[in-house]
Amino acid sequence: MCVRRVENIREVIRGGLCNRCGSCVGLTHGKIVFRDREGRYLPEIVQPLSSEEHALAFAACSGKGFDFPNQKMKLFGNPLGARSHAIGYSTDPEIRLTAASGGILSSILIWLLEKKMIDGAVVLGMSKEKPWLTQPFIATTREEVLEAAQSKYIISSVNEILPQMESFRGTLAYVGLPGQVQSVRLLQQMGHPSVRNVRYIFGPFYGNTLHFSSVKSFLRSFGVRDYHSIKRLYFRYGEWPGKMRVELQDGMAFELPKFHANYLIPFHILKNSLLCTDLTNEFTDISGGDAWAPVYEERGKGFSLVIGRSEAGERILEEMAGEGRIQLDPISNEEALEMHSHGYDLKKRGTFIRMRYRGWFGLRNPDWGYELKGFAFGRYAMELVIDTLFLLLGTAPARWLIERIPPKTVGKVFEKARTTWKRSTHRIKREKLY
Asked: Who is most buried in 119, 144, 280, 359, counting CB within 10 A?
């Protein structure tokens, strides 16, 4: 597949390659800003950039691409970039209950703070002024780490916090999504002062991101038009797997089980997330995500699939397990693949098929430094069906129609349809995956 390379920030933004990591905003001192956070949430150049400013922002941009094979050798010294796989959870009941799954990442941050191995952690919380939007901040206490716990399924731009990271006195851990992490790695390799204090990098697994329109649509389905009345917004509220829950200023609250709330995905997905080929946050020291397997799902409480990649990350996991702060049960690479086979197929096959389709229409694609190909015709056909559904369901008429159906009804139908789809495509998705 021939990749049409982008040559400047404007081409990244206009070409649909921007992953909203926030680096260009954080590096340009107000010359690039996010203006429409409740809409398209795209960076906008509001003042002319000097050649040096543009060169820096463009070099740090992960939306244009990231050389996976080269970076894995550079960062981890091996082409796989993974040293261990385990199923784990925090032994602290409060952390485990507060977190999205097993609470591993929150436990690590709290442990590092207690051990004085870091002075702060870059995390993602919800805005104090606009509690319906995400906002990165530097946590320095257990309470602040727990405040940022759980997944946020709407767009975030963690790296706009780079100026605060640069001025922070002390060492930092950093938590971000794949595109955000990749940009930080590029800045580290440039020796940029904004990341000189970052000692460890962690991150969650990444499937997709939704526009804020998903929250507005969710409320409209319950007859609420004014999202400014939101007091608290949760995406994984309560015991695992949690619920999407919106609390309003007047005391009213609306919620839906996570698997039912997933109906919002095809209607409000950020299309750029379908160009990301990194499911497990491959350039972190440690990453974690839900342990999707019946043996764990039936138990509730929350279990995490934990992947250690760097020597530093492995030491943290070993010491925490030795102290009884986390429980880790090793599994094989094959078991980990099986647990997230649907996600690996979406990212490692689907992404490259979607990029090929984009290329046919003359659209630019990110350059990941490698290409997977040779998939069966059935997988190409399946991707065509998926992409067509995303295209049709993302239209205004489709969104209008779905908001006229009770969310509980839509959620149940969606979960049943999703289960049927997964069963019918099981063979295609797993063919030659291992």
From this structure: 280
How many C-beta atoms lie closer than 10 Å to residue 30's C-beta? 9
User: What tokens appear for 237 in the block?
Assistant: 């509220």
311-322 and 104-114 helices, crossing angle to 10°: 90
Residue 241, preceding bond cis, omega within 30 degrees? yes
Supply the pTM of this predicted model: 0.96
Rounded CA-CA distance 12/8 in Å is 7
Alpha carbon 152 to chain centroid distance?
8
Tokens 């839900």 belong to residue: 290
Q: What is the distance between the alpha carbons of residues 395 and 377, in angstroms, rounded to a whole number?
A: 28
Q: Nearest-5° angle of CA 329, CA 282, CA 157? A: 115
* Alpha carbons 157 and 255: distance in angstroms, whole number: 26
Find the distance separating the first CA and the last CA of the chain, reported in whole Å: 23
Structure tokens at 347: 């990212």
Note whether 183 and 198 are within 8 A (CB).
no
| Neighbouring residues of 417: CB distance < 8 A, sequence distance ≥ 6 | none
Give the per-residue pLDDT at 3.
60
pLDDT digits (tens, 9 = 90+) for 317-368: 999 999 999 999 999 999 999 899 899 999 999 999 999 999 999 999 999 9
Q: At a CB cut-off of 8 Å and minimum separation 6, what does 318 contact? A: none
Specify the residue for token string 């009345």. Answer: 229
The amino acid present at 300, given as its one-letter code, is G
Structure tokens at 112: 């590092």
Joined tokens for residue 311: 């020597």
- Confirm if 68 and 303 have CB atoms less than 8 A apart: no
Task: Tokens for 47, please give them.
Answer: 């003042």
Q: How many CB atoms lie within 10 A of CB 260?
A: 20
Mean pLDDT confidence for 421-431:
70
**Cβ-count burial 353-370 (b if 16+ within 10 Å, e if not):** bbbbebeeeeebbbbbee
Nearest of 90, 62, 167, 154 to residue 122 by alpha carbon: 167
